[in-house]
Amino acid sequence: MFPPDKNKNISRREFLRSVSRASMILGGAGLSLSYPPWSEAFLGNAWGGLLSSPSDEMIRNAPLARYWISANSPGGQCLSCHQPDDKIEGRQYDHKKGIVKCLLCARECLINEGERGACQARINVRGELRSLVYGRPVTMHVDPIEKKPLYHFLPGSSAFSLATSGCPLHCKFCQNWEISQARPEDFSTRYTPPEAIVQATAQRHVPVIAFTYNEPTVFTEYLTDIARISRNQDIRSVLISCGFMNKEPLDEMCSVLDAIKIDLKGFDKDFYRRVCNAELEPVLRSIRQVAKNGVHLEIVNLVVPTLNDSEKMLTELAEWVMGELGPDVPIHFTRFHPDYQMRNLPPTPVATLERAYDIAKARGIRYPFVGNVPGHPGNNTYCPGCGKPVILRTGFFITAEHLKNGRCGYCNEVIAGVWT
């Protein structure tokens, strides 16, 4: 069983460190997880890994991944990997090594035999791309859905949350870098099939499974298998993502998920390149795609002082959301706290978050929020009709709700969201 939650406001970082002292036993489902012996000295160094490479057993049991092509695939097109300016037209070449191109995320890594993509979660084994993280969650926890944050999706409910290691991004401010920037072999994990995750969720009478903490796209095969099984048991599934995936895998995820929260880390190409080692456009494409698929969508913008907090950037972000998605997508302007490789910056001034909130409101967005500031009135949901608070929050918890069948309890205005 999960241990009693003595402090419901415990941070994910505190949780990750606490599990270093004791394995979390998932009693009724017969699951257990073990964790590496964290220490401040270990956390302070770059990830060298507890093991120098995946074990033979880990590689042997790694299932075939989806979304990749091989240089030697029958009927393969050279321009699937090469650029037009490589001047390969009319040339023939038989690759002696089984190079593969991963098509899961927007990086589209070219991977030699025995090597991995940037996410560290997928490996080329004799010309086949395999997943090192399928069935290998490194953390599980029951969280309030508001912690994701999802404010307009089953408010007040709990979510059985899980993560593996790995991420295609390398954000300098990452709050969960201990797992997102790790390799699978940095953890001693027991194989946990999708059915066991759904069983553990059902036994706790939790209505939602959340794929979160690291970037769940790296375990897309695992999460989609879990989500398909959970639907048959009336358990909903949500994705907490950076949005840096390709179109085809995102279409598959949208077909089995009930809600997606995407981090739009800043509305600036240079910010993405310098701070996240990524590109902005694939994230914008993913946000449009989720909205088009009709999956419940919320957006988070972590506002980092001096880096993505200019009035111009916040205004362009709000105008893009309003123009592309309309007024009803909730946007969370969340407070930055110093972490990982950005300990030199101060926490975001609350006034900056309030300015972002006001900019979004002025552009017509109906549901902006101030995040990571417990007790702030910007945590509440206000009716766009009469302006009264219809959901009041303190921290990650609902303190009052004035909704009736998805409508304002005061004026009967429709409040966009998923309520039952």
Automatic annotation (TrEMBL):
- Which InterPro entries does the record cross-reference, listed alphabetically? Aldolase_TIM, AmmeMemoSam_rS, Elp3/MiaA/NifB-like_rSAM, Organic_radical-activating, rSAM, rSAM_sf, TAT_signal
What does the record give under GO molecular function?
4 iron, 4 sulfur cluster binding; catalytic activity; metal ion binding
Please verify whether the record's keywords include Iron-sulfur. yes
- CDD domains hit by this protein: Radical_SAM (cd01335)
What taxonomic classification does the UniProt entry list for its organism?
Bacteria, Pseudomonadati, Thermodesulfobacteriota, Desulfobacteria, Desulfobacterales
The record's listing under Gene3D superfamilies reads: Aldolase class I
Protein name as catalogued: Radical SAM domain-containing protein
List membrane-spanning regions: none
Source organism per entry reads Desulfonema magnum
Q: Which domain of life is it from?
A: Bacteria
Needed cofactors: [4Fe-4S] cluster
Tell me where in this chain the Radical SAM core domain is found: 152-368
| Keyword line | 4Fe-4S, Iron, Iron-sulfur, Metal-binding, S-adenosyl-L-methionine
Q: One of this protein's Pfam families, by short name? A: Radical_SAM
